[in-house]
Amino acid sequence: MTELKNGINITWKQHLLVWTSYWVLVSGSAALYDLDFFPVFMGFLTKMPLTMLAAYLIFYWVLPQFWNKSSWPLAVLMVFGLDLGFVLINRIITWQFVYPWLFHGEYTFTFWNWYRISQLMVYMLMAQAFFGAYKYYFDLTETLKKERELRKQKQEAELAFLRAQVHPHFLFNSLNALYNEILQKKESAGSTLLRLTNLYRFILEECTQESIALGKELNLIEDFVDLEKLRYGTRLEIQFLKSSNLDLNAMIPPMILFSFIENSFKHGISDQQGESLVKINISDKEGVLVFEVSNPVSGNDDNLNGFRSGIGLENTKKQLELLFGGKHTLEQKIEQGQFHTLLKMPLS
Q1: Which is the CATH superfamily of the domain at 166-346?
Q2: Best CA proximity match to 278, nearest among 299, 256, 263, 300
């Protein structure tokens, strides 16, 4: 399969269909002039390899690399130069091989025939327009399909989260801790209730959005961490570091970061005896969000498998792949009794 820059794939059969259609259409149209089909079809067939190569170079290299606001004149110049170069190469091939084979010296070949050169340039541009139209149609249909799949995955992630992530056991523990604070008449009881309310409001309201501000996601994480501190008490220590250059208005998919935080408590801290340290580090490096989480982990096989294959994490990984198409990096490893997660993804 040929992989496009945006992660969409076109199979070799589709390429073959596109170029065969173009060859038959153009050759047939030209042959109708004098009804001499064989030499016209064969002549165009010998030009197809370089015609295809020019189209692929333009659509998979020149335009992706140079077609932007500042360098589009260079892209136009490169397209013209490539087309002219391949036309002249085709002229050489026709002069040395095609004419002797098809016409056996019956016609005189003039290399610098500007009418023929211009004609070949037009055919080259027609081929690129033909292929470009198909590529645009294919990309559009695949993008719409990808968006439908993303919406489905998002719905599944939300349901899985409500069903498995913020489960009744967590709610019970949070409410029980809140109840104890109220009995002891602690001033923090009100803020604890507010955090719990914010957490569930986020789940019910913000998760319906395609993207949210980074600041909202971080507020969710902070509320969750505060509730976990209430649950585990002094045996839990959190190091939460945020770089000063973070753009809190940058848009990210909802709960993408939160899933990894929740996972670290569900499969890490809950099984630990004694004090535990969770490290969270979020930074922005040239438009790329770098998100790191580390927490202690026990040697229990089920626990280790939970880190890698929980329902929430599997949905998160699928969403990352659908959203960023390989432009993100996700690394997870266990080292010296610590489970490390490193996520890098572009900010918008």
Answers
A1: Histidine kinase-like ATPase, C-terminal domain (3.30.565.10)
A2: 263
Distance of alpha carbon 187 from alpha carbon 180, whole angstroms: 12
**How many CB atoms are located within 10 Å of the residue 181 CB?**
18
Alpha-carbon distance 189 to 207, whole Å? 26
- Please say whether the beta carbons of 87 and 121 come within 8 A: yes
Over residues 209-233, the mean pLDDT reads 84
Domain with CATH 3.30.565.10 in the chain: 166-346
**What is this structure's pTM?**
0.52
Structure tokens, 166: 């913020």
- Joined tokens for residue 137: 């149609």
Evaluated on CA atoms 270, 276, 282, 285, the torsion sign reads negative
Residue type for 341, please? T
Q: Which two tokens stand for residue 323?
A: 């959203």
CA distance 234 to 221: 19
Q: How far apart are CA 347 and CA 147, in angstroms?
A: 19
Residues 84-104: what's their mean pLDDT?
81
Query: 62 φ, ψ to 5°?
Result: -60, -55
For residue 340, give the H/E element and its range. strand 338-346
* pLDDT tens-place string over residues 141-150: 888 888 888 8
CB-side exposure of 303: number of CA atoms within 13 Å?
A: 19
